[in-house]
Write a structure and sequence with these properties.
single chain; alpha/beta; Rossmann fold; 13 helices; disordered C terminus
Length: about 260
């Protein structure tokens, strides 16, 4: 299962939302966050994970062990808690663009992820479009989510991007960050999609997540409650999940085991 997150413009919080969706995903389905932003990644530095192993190792593993998800996890992922892993991307935009523009890199990784029937892969694709080097990941996604801030100057960019990604992904949805001046029905009509969610803007979201996923202040934040709801609806939309269980408790720190599948 692949869910790709991207934005049209600005910084609506795609990376932190990817991490929170992984933490909030319902049931006991393992989940992996893959940072595939060609403008450079932030997850490795933000959470003290580093970038090696990471997306570079994932690309190499996909080339040589295509179709073996366990090998991909073992080679490239950082375990950050119970049933949760992260594959951080290169911090440099030059390195990230070079990595994902390499011959068939995104296509091979997308095929390997699509073959993984045990996990949900949550891909942070940055400012994604059908012309992006990581478009192959969108093409294999069960759902592509366009994140946007609620201001009209940002929303006006969304319908065109939705139409663009609809030519690739099975489904496209929109997540509006903040409180728009329009209801969900109006937003669905404007964006041209059935699946639209609104989540609270949280200026301290990064600081809250850096304290650890079990931190009480994070769990009380409106953005956490909103993304728990979004994760549950996404899981129901794109496929069955495991037996009901609390959202993953990823502990008080992200400095946990590395590469443990």
């Amino acid at each position: 299962m692949i869910v790709t997150l991207g934005s049209v413009r600005g910084a609506p919080g795609v990376s932190v939302s990817a991490m929170l969706l992984a933490a909030a995903w319902p049931g006991d389905t393992p989940r992996v966050v893959l940072e595939a932003d060609v403008d450079g990644g932030v997850i490795g530095a933000r959470y003290g994970l580093g970038v090696d192993p990471g997306a570079s190792a994932l690309v190499a593993a996909a080339r040589h062990q295509l179709g073996d998800p366990e090998q991909l996890i073992g080679e490239a992922a950082r375990r950050v808690g119970d049933r949760a892993w992260v594959v951080p991307g290169p911090e440099s935009a030059v390195a990230a663009l070079r990595l994902w523009s390499a011959d068939r890199a995104a296509t091979q990784v997308a095929a390997a992820l699509a073959a993984d029937i045990e996990r949900v892969w949550i891909v942070d694709a940055g400012r994604v479009s059908s012309r992006a080097p990581v478009a192959a990941l969108v093409a294999r996604s069960d759902l592509a989510l366009v994140f946007t801030r609620h201001e009209p100057a940002d929303l006006v960019q969304v319908p065109e991007r939705v139409a663009d990604l609809a030519n690739l992904a099975r489904r496209v949805g929109v997540v509006v960050v903040g409180t728009p001046d329009y209801g969900l029905d109006e937003l669905r009509e404007f964006c041209g999609v059935r699946h639209v969610w609104q989540v609270s803007a949280e200026p301290n979201a990064v600081a809250l997540t850096q304290r650890g996923w079990a931190d009480r202040r994070l769990r009380r934040a409106p953005v956490w409650r909103d993304l728990v709801t979004v994760a549950a609806e996404l899981a129901e939309l794109i496929g069955p999940v495991g037996p009901a269980a609390p959202a993953a408790d990823l502990g008080g720190s992200l400095h946990l085991e590395v590469g443990d599948a």
